[in-house]
């Protein structure tokens, strides 16, 4: 460098990554081989976004400035032989966006130092970049809870005369992820044609939009997984996992020139069917404790009927202003009804039509899915309808605290005529409380005399 042996910028504690609103400090070191006359030594800190029309070009067509601050650390004079150190400090605005480097644009932050020399002398400059990270908390993103789902029905023609239909339905387990988290993807393919489809594929795609007079869209596939084909007239459920690699966050808050989007693309190669599942990638993962809770539904009894289906005598006592009704007579057992009956259906199915397995819990015959899993990842997991848990599993504390319900042993048994209510006698309601007047019972002496 001629008269300069060293001209460098160093940040305190060798720190490279900063946050908005934080201060950046360091020193400028100048090592002089010969005395050097200067008008001033200035240090500048700036941040900006530049957009170009060519890949990896620095001739910016559009720029956006975030901050540009300068400070003079030395006045006019002569720098003597040896090493000189000048400290500096700047405050980073809290509105500055996260650093970014793309094919058609960058968000750059840097500290530059200048030595202004007299006229006709050589000026000296140096610079050092630093990175800014504005954390994206996924818990603060609107509409982030739930799953990302989509479905599409595609008709196509094969063999020139035949027409087929493919129904594609897919969803992810969440809408927001952070690097190193795993996307649980589930896809349902229903091939309603006589032709075998091509292989199913899913990919994590990054789409960066650079805003210029004619916006530039840079689409890049980050990760991809592939499954098998679906045979004719078959329905298949495919499960896969995609690991999120280190990626820029979805939102560059404070930047108006660059927009980053992520989505999962699910597609079939033949016929041409494709759908997308938008997702968010941030720095702070979703906290399940902050998830909005839904209002709980009213508790129901263990036999599938609600509490309001019980007889009125067991749920409410008669009003004191109304006359007491006489004890009800046992109702006759209803006769089986035909399927064409126009009467209103009961709140619970008759016992003879209730299918109860040996475990004692009503089940649906169609619960066991007839879909076949095809090329499932070894790490994929799901609940299997035929899975049995150990018998020594601890009982449900909620069920243990509930009143005893009718037990089933292989076949359903009808409920008793008067269900047992805690605190009530085992006799029928209003037994011995007739409205007619009654005399007091005779005493012991009167009974003996009689």
TrEMBL record:
Region (Disordered): 287-450
GO molecular function terms attached to this record: ubiquitin protein ligase binding; ubiquitin-like ligase-substrate adaptor activity
UniProt record, GO biological process: nervous system development; protein transport
Taxonomy, superkingdom: Eukaryota
Low complexity bias (residue ranges): 295-306, 337-346, 390-406
Every Arrestin C-terminal-like domain range: 162-286
Pfam families, per the entry: Arrestin_C, Arrestin_N
Family of the protein in this entry: Belongs to the arrestin family.
Protein name (Swiss-Prot/TrEMBL): (Atlantic silverside) hypothetical protein
Annotated organism of origin: Menidia menidia (Atlantic silverside)
Record lineage: Eukaryota, Metazoa, Chordata, Craniata, Vertebrata
């Amino acid at each position: 460098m001629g008269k300069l042996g060293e001209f460098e910028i160093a940040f305190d504690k060798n720190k490279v990554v900063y946050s908005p609103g934080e201060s950046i400090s360091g020193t400028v070191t100048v090592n002089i081989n010969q005395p050097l006359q200067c008008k001033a030594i200035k240090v500048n800190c700036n941040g900006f976004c530049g957009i170009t029309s060519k890949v990896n070009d620095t001739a910016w067509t559009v720029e956006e400035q975030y901050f540009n601050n300068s400070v003079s650390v030395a006045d006019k004079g002569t720098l003597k032989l040896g090493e000189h150190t000048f400290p500096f400090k700047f405050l980073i605005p809290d509105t500055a966006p996260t650093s970014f480097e793309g094919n058609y644009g960058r968000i750059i932050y840097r500290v530059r130092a200048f030595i202004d020399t007299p006229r006709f002398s050589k000026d000296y400059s140096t610079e050092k970049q630093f990175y800014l990270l504005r954390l994206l908390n996924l818990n603060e993103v609107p509409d982030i809870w739930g799953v990302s789902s989509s479905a599409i029905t595609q008709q196509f023609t094969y063999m020139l005369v035949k027409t087929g239909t493919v129904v594609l339905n897919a969803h992810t387990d969440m809408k927001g992820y952070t690097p190193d988290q795993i996307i649980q993807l589930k896809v349902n393919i229903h091939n309603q044609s006589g032709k075998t489809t091509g292989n199913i594929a899913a990919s994590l795609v990054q789409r960066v939009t650079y805003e210029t007079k004619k916006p530039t869209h840079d689409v890049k596939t980050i990760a991809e997984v592939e499954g098998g084909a679906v045979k004719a007239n078959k329905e298949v459920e495919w499960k896969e996992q995609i690991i999120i690699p280190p990626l820029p966050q979805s939102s560059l808050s404070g930047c108006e020139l660059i927009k980053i989007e992520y989505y999962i693309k699910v597609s079939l190669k033949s016929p041409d069917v494709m759908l997308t599942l938008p997702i968010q990638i941030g720095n702070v993962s979703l906290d399940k404790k902050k998830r909005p809770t839904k209002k709980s539904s009213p508790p129901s009894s263990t036999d599938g009927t609600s509490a309001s289906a019980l007889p009125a005598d067991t749920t409410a006592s008669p009003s004191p202003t109304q006359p007491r009704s006489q004890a009800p007579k046992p109702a006759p057992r209803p006769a089986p009804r035909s399927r064409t009956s126009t009467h209103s259906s009961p709140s619970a199915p008759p016992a003879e039509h209730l299918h109860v397995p040996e475990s004692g819990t009503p089940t649906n015959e169609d619960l066991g899915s007839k879909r076949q899993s095809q090329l499932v990842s070894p790490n994929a997991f799901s609940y299997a309808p035929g899975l049995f848990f150990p018998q020594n599993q601890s009982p449900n504390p909620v069920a243990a605290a509930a009143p005893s319900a009718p037990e089933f042993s292989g076949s359903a048994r009808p409920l008793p005529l008067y269900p047992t209510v805690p605190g009530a006698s085992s006799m029928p309601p209003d037994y011995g409380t007739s409205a007619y007047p009654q005399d007091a019972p005779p005493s012991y002496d009167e009974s003996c005399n009689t």
